[in-house]
Design goal:
The chain has 64 residues and is an all-alpha fold. The longest helix has 24 residues. The termini are far apart.
Length: 64
Amino acid sequence: MANKVNWTDLTPDEKMKYEIAQELGLLDRVLENGWRTLSAKETGRIGGLMTKRKRMMKQEMEQH
């Protein structure tokens, strides 16, 4: 079950999620089998990195 991702219709959060999955080497599996195939550990890692990046972006916005 290959998921077709329309990259232009993604929200910024969704784009970040896919980018992090790619950085962690999980993107191919997500695209091929869906997000549900990831373990809780892998999903938690993506969520943690998303939270960290959002916090960093917010701090950068407040500094400028």
